[in-house]
Prior knowledge:
Elements: H1 26-68, H2 76-82, H3 84-98, H4 102-122, H5 124-159, H6 161-164, H7 173-178, H8 199-205, H9 216-220, H10 229-239, H11 245-251, H12 255-269, H13 275-283, H14 300-325
Amino acid sequence: xxxxxxxxxxxxxxxxxxxxxxxxxxxxxxxxxxxxxxxxxxxxxxxxxxxxxxxxxxxxxxxxxxxxxxxxxxxxxxxxxxxxxxxxxxxxxxxxxxxxxxxxxxxxxxxxxxxxxxxxxxxxxxxxxxxxxxxxxxxxxxxxxxxxxxxxxxxxxxxxxxxxxxxxxxxxxxxxxxxxxxxxxxxxxxxxxxxxxxxxxxxxxxxxxxxxxxxxxxxxxxxxxxxxxxxxxxxxxxxxxxxxxxxxxxxxxxxxxxxxxxxxxxxxxxxxxxxxxxxxxxxxxxxxxxxxxxxxxxxxxxxxxxxxxxxxxxxxxxxxxxxxxx
Length: 326
């Protein structure tokens, strides 16, 4: 069993979001803040549970020893039924101790990580389970970025259709900044025909009213392959035009195609490298290199390495779009 490198779990954190210039983007920012907190809490949940379970058992051991003079057969659940008066006292004292200074909480989580490492090293079932949880955190990080990019685009076009709904940007602009290929050829995209909205599409985008006030983003979103990365590149390339350097810089960062590739490998291939993965990873800086048929070893270090850049990119994209529309 490989080392899961649990201490790196603390590198997964919610990045702060600056105040917005455009308050009409606030719903998207609030959703992102909530998703980032959820991601950070998910990363810390298991170490926290290990630590707290150990503290509960310790509290019972001390209390039972004081009452009986021994520790034989102590178990929090069984002892609670036997010593109801003792249970209420111990649990109240435990709850009070849990309201501790942040630095003590950090030490407690570090203790939980250390004990979790020992537990998973000794138990194959726990090791497999924790690797699955780490994989889920990595996929959650990708989803956080992709949903932010999709919802932000839709909201921006809904609120500022005069600026964005004309889709005057250069197709393939962002993809050409970041796609590596041996020929150096530029990616070209043909824009869709101007007749892009069916009556059914109008009906769905307007909730059955055919009123498209602040619904153009919802209507146009269907023409792009959200939440896939190439769909995000295409949508932002076409909607945003002029002074797009900040937006383009965020969306062309190396970490995004790497995380997308690793996420797809875990989700669609169970972490086992196929030919598409091997060849694509060879061209991507920072992508884990695997032989054909080899299995990706998921660790907290790998998750933090690839998740944190996506978290930062989600925050930075929100700020860049806020600057553009503001």
